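Board notes (copied after class):
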Amino acid sequence: MCGIAAIISFNDKGKERFSRIAKCTDLLKHRGPDYQKHIIESNYAMAHARLSIIDLSEASNQPFTTHDNRFTIVYNGEIFNYKQLKSELKQCGHNFYTEGDVEVLINLYKEHGKDCLNRINGFFSFLLYDKQTQSFFAARDRYGVKPFYYYADENYFTCSSELRTLKYITDCNTINKTALYTYLQLTYIPEKLSILENIHKLEPGECLTIEGNKIRREKYYSIKLPSEYKESKDINKTFLTLLESAVEERLTSDVPVGCFLSGGIDSSVITAIAVQQNKNLQTFSIGFKNNSYFDESVYAEMVAKKYHTNHQTFHLGETDAENELESFLNAIDEPFADSSAFNVYVLSKKTKQHVKVVLSGDGADELFAGYNKHRAEWIIRNQKLKTSLLKGASSITDLFPSSRNSKLSNRIRQINRFANGAKLSSQERYWQWVCFYEENKVKRLIDLSPKEGKYFSEIKSTYTSIVNTDYNSTLLADVNLVLPSDMLTKVDRMSMANALEVRNPFLDYRIVDFAFSLDVKNKIDANIQKKIVKESCAHLLPKEILDRKKHGFETPIQKWLKDVLKNKVEEYCLNKDFIKQQNLFNYEELKRVVEQSLTANSGDSTSIVWSVLIFNYWYKQHIQ
């Protein structure tokens, strides 16, 4: 797990950028504190910051060049089946001089070309140079666990694990207003967009080839829904076997591996399986002092007690939040306002003091219908009477305060949100439910030109057009949008800011492909969500965990806006001169939303204030 950067010149003018590669190792050092190096050759420059996990020796340091000097690579990721692949490659005549997976990746590419990507079980982003063909090959893993930003013009191509590195190399600093507009709705920026004009992201399951100054980008992996779902026997047994294999492979490491344990179904299942293979397993969770609504640590401790793990809960109070806030904000490489990112940041920081690698339960909700919106969508599609009753109830609940800050006010918010969604088409409803702030409200906050508005509609359509009459299509839309752009981005940025590697057993490609071969009835029905996960793993978990309703990994943002963040709200949201000079937001509307966010009837206004605060802090640090 590392940080990478590279510059490829197309002419002498492009080579002028090579002088900037040296600083890239410093900019990426938090991702790889164990070793940093850069190289400059006649037509390219590469930089690498290493977090040593497999083969801790110097032999696997990067940039890595093969013994025959043909291939050079910068690689960020882990190949969990590398030992099996290495054995197969040896039988094909390939020689190895290290014990790491980077050399396996190079030989795999040498043997199979781009088809090597479909043989890898793991996550990655990399750039590889073939001196013999004078070509470059880059790729990103199937689901977007690891990031890959890039920029290209007539003079050079450059790529990196982080936006800040590319900004330094390219001098790009023009805000992409379509991306900002989308971010204010979602709280994150989709993989099809970047907050800076002309900087792009290689999307999940994509690769690109550079020959001369020609760049060819293509998809090597995508999920296809079957035209007909076949009945299969023993699906619970099949699933559990796949999950046990995925966990076992992800425990492969030359350093200790622990588990994030939130107290939810997914991390609890991973912990229960992992402890069977590692009796001295360390587990880690986070809680909030004096705030029972947001604190789930009691459930995590219940699982830890059952399996006798070496468990630690890090309890956060207001003072802790204030102390960590500045470093958290500085870790946000591209504007990102999922409030749970703060929890992941602090949890990663504390966990890194004990281990270098952890397993997590990310991915299960998207694959197996674990979110509240998945329940709501199922009800609308299958229970017309209940839908009508909830729509009717909204005429009453709409009169009461709604917010995310207590159980009752959040339930009122959910009923109102359900009622509004039930009036829409499935595609428009999907977009409303992935958004934290409605588009018509964002329009009052920021103006788009007709060209920018058209571009937004096109971006939105690429995600919503996936949704159709097949319920699984809503889950596939989440795997394409929410999973890489929100969940995996959050974990990558916050963990790697603290040089901690997070592995996701549920995103083993065998499990993902299996999940989308299942009829929806195996995932959700009138009584249960994540049905196959709960039924196949029921014997592993306490009943209290199995029966728990979904509770997001949330943060008490409204409370913080009123106290520990009060000065920052004043500085980044209510500074009229700054907002006017910035020329992006409608100041009067922003002021109104800030005022609403502090009331009992805050609705979703707290999310927009948090989003603007995050963006403007980033803007002052990186643009102004």
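Comment from the instructor: The CA atoms of residues 424 and 566 lie 37 Å apart. The chain has three domains: 2-219, 235-367+477-546, 556-624.
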